[in-house]
Amino acid sequence: MKTLTITRPDDLHLHVRNGAVLKMVIPHTARQFARAIIMPNLKPPVTNVAQALAYRDEILQAVPDGLDFTPLMTLYLTGSTPVTEIKKAAESEHIHAIKLYPAGATTNSDSGVADIKAVYPLFEAMEKHDLPLLIHGEVTDEQCDIFDRERLFIDTHLTAIADNFPALRVVVEHVTTKEAVQFVQSTGANIAATITPQHLLFNRNALLAGGIRPHYYCLPILKREVHRLALVAAATGGSPKFFLGTDSAPHLTSLKENSCGCAGCYSAHAALPLYAEAFERAGALDKLEGFASFYGADFYRLPRNAGTVTLEKTEWLVPASYGEGELTITPLKANESLSWQIRQV
Ligand code: NCD
Ligand code: ZN
């Protein structure tokens, strides 16, 4: 049997929610990843250090016994975040970044930032305290076509942020376009990007051709094939500027299969197998370890993980759903087969 053993990886962009959903999803991530950067877009959002530490405790409690998993916390930036909170966050060993959601850009982003220039003093504090800024890079202008929102964000905001804060570490989260890839490649080592499995494996046909498939709807939305190819080249090219961030974003099946379905793909159940599939198709399985286990840790200035995880090339069928009753989540590739699986230990 073909196997692939890599250093234990990290998921540098993950939504685990709280309460019952957290308990359902966290074992999937903890089986594969040593650590994950936890997104703060709860309802209400995690905007200060005290809330982040309480959320961290809730996550740790939900990790099944015997699994060794460390949540890396982030704060949700708002127009009224005090500069002092940035310093406090930088001083906490458990807070690793600040997340910027443009107001209205995605799930639970109502409290996000409406005027990006107005929070420049907070970026200045992050630059000074060397705390990374994580950006959901899409404009929210209703006049802007949804497929152009990432590209326009680069021209309108990202270039200016990079110019004004040359030492600020920035992660352009879940890049989806060739323009975003080019932007990241053209900047210094302080600017990096995460790439999701769905944006490596699918283009927008998966969402819209032959029927509308809500489980492929996420933000930023899937793009044309030319963009997918640029993402595959970036992820498999061995550049330390691109690393693994699943953006696994669980929503109840009833809220996805809905006349106004929520944005977010659930991929934690099979994150590494999905990436392995994408890397294998590109003939670049040897590049998976850097992308999954080294570059993210290096960017966040964390030690690389000890231990390994082994993938086996054995076909398996992804379940139709996880959970039961009202509390049901439909995973990416539900009822379809995947060619790699995690070796159980
Ligand atoms: C995310 C979610 O559901 O929290 N949804 C998504 O489509 N990616 C939010 C986000 O990261 O945009
Ligand atoms: Zn996300």
Quick tags:
8-stranded parallel sheet, 3-stranded antiparallel sheet, binds zinc ion, TIM Barrel
List the helices and strands and how they pair.
Elements (H helix, E strand, L loop, with lengths): L2 E5 L2 E5 L4 H14 L2 E4 L10 H14 L7 E7 L6 H9 L3 E6 L19 H10 L3 E3 L13 H16 L5 E3 L5 H9 L4 E5 L1 H5 L3 H4 L16 H12 L5 E3 L8 H4 L14 H11 L6 H12 L8 E5 L3 E2 L4 E3 L2 E3 L7 E2 L2 E2 L3
Parallel strand pairs: 2-3, 3-4, 4-5, 5-6, 6-7, 7-8, 8-9
Antiparallel strand pairs: 1-10, 10-15, 11-14, 12-13
Helix pairs in contact: 3-4
Helix and strand content put the structural class at alpha/beta
| Unreliable stretches covering 5 or more consecutive residues | none
- The total number of structural domains is 1
Nearest-integer average pLDDT: 97
Shape: globular
Distance between the termini: 17 Å
Helix fraction? 25-40%
- Number of DSSP helices? 12
> CATH homologous superfamily - what is it?
Metal-dependent hydrolases
Query: In the CATH hierarchy, what is the class?
Result: Alpha Beta
Biggest sheet architecture: 8 strands, parallel
Q: How many strand units?
A: 15
The CATH topology turns out to be TIM Barrel
The CATH architecture term is: Alpha-Beta Barrel
